[in-house]
Automatic annotation (TrEMBL):
Pfam families: Aldolase_II (PF00596)
Domain Class II aldolase/adducin N-terminal: 8-187
Enzyme class: lyase
Gene3D superfamilies per the UniProt record, alphabetical: Class II aldolase/adducin N-terminal domain
Family the UniProt entry places it in: Belongs to the aldolase class II family.
Keywords per UniProt: Lyase
One annotated Gene Ontology cellular component of this protein: cytoskeleton
Enzyme Commission numbers on file: 4.1.-.-
UniProt cross-references to InterPro entries, sorted A to Z: Aldolase-II_Adducin_sf, Aldolase_II/adducin_N, Aldolase_II/adducin_N_sf
UniProt protein name: Decarboxylase NovR
Any one GO MF annotation of this record: lyase activity
């Protein structure tokens, strides 16, 4: 089996996403580039809790499955292939429709506000795509998302969901997890009907620099993989 550790990490990410309730049916897709011409992606029709290192597909940028059994969901190919090809830091691409960050994209002018410390780690790293076309079955969708990402890591796609990219699976997972939590805090506060208490810009910028810890990111993902090894050893 080629790319064994990459397969293990991506499969673990999908299993964890299922545990966290981020999956919708058998839709949505995570991928990981293994070289300039190929990426791993979950096969169409599998529940994320069924994904294993061995049943991930290895695909090329022409949409061909070069290793594994199954097919790539069309929107997975068009979104992920374009991002992998054109965004240098997007080695891992996670696309899903989790409740709170997706709900943020359903609010007119919805933005993550600096109302909680967990939001500060995303300062300057979130983009918003308001150009909803209703279709992800051509290269235009992936191209638009890739252009929107820029040098950031997260795109909130209005009326749709979110796409998170990172240089490693651990970083992408950690960003996805914490962004969803930050959105949950904000939307829960908004449901009170009271105004959000926004942190001053100078405080936000000062604190944001300390919210990013590579070792903590790796510790988080490693701990979650240990839980999977304990509870779901397959």
């Amino acid at each position: 089996m080629q790319h064994r550790q990459d397969r293990i990490d991506l499969a673990a990410c999908l299993r964890l996403a299922a545990r966290n309730g981020w999956q919708r049916g058998v839709d949505n897709h995570f991928s990981l580039a293994v070289d300039e011409g190929h990426f791993l992606v979950n096969a169409r029709g599998l529940h994320w809790s069924e994904v294993t290192a061995s049943n991930l597909l290895l695909a090329d940028h022409d949409g061909n499955v070069v290793e594994g059994e199954g097919e790539i969901e069309a929107s997975a190919f068009y979104i992920h292939s374009h991002i992998h090809r054109t965004v240098p830091h997007a080695r891992c691409v996670l696309h899903a429709h989790p409740t709170y960050s997706t709900a943020l994209g359903c609010i007119e002018g919805g933005r993550l506000e600096n109302c909680h410390q967990d939001a500060l780690r995303f300062l300057g790293r979130v983009s918003y795509d308001g150009d909803f076309s209703g279709s992800a079955f051509d290269d235009g969708e992936g191209g638009r998302i890739a252009a929107t990402i820029g040098n950031g890591n997260i795109v909130v796609m209005a009326h749709h969901g979110i796409t998170v990219v990172g240089e490693t699976v651990a970083r992408a997972y950690d960003d996805f997890y914490n962004f969803e939590v930050a959105c949950e805090y904000q939307l829960t506060a908004m449901a009170s009907g009271r105004p959000l208490a926004i942190l001053p810009d100078d405080v936000s910028e000062k604190l944001a620099a300390g919210m990013w810890d590579e070792r903590q990111i790796d510790f988080h993902f490693a701990a979650m993989k240990r839980l999977l090894d304990r509870d779901e050893p397959d």
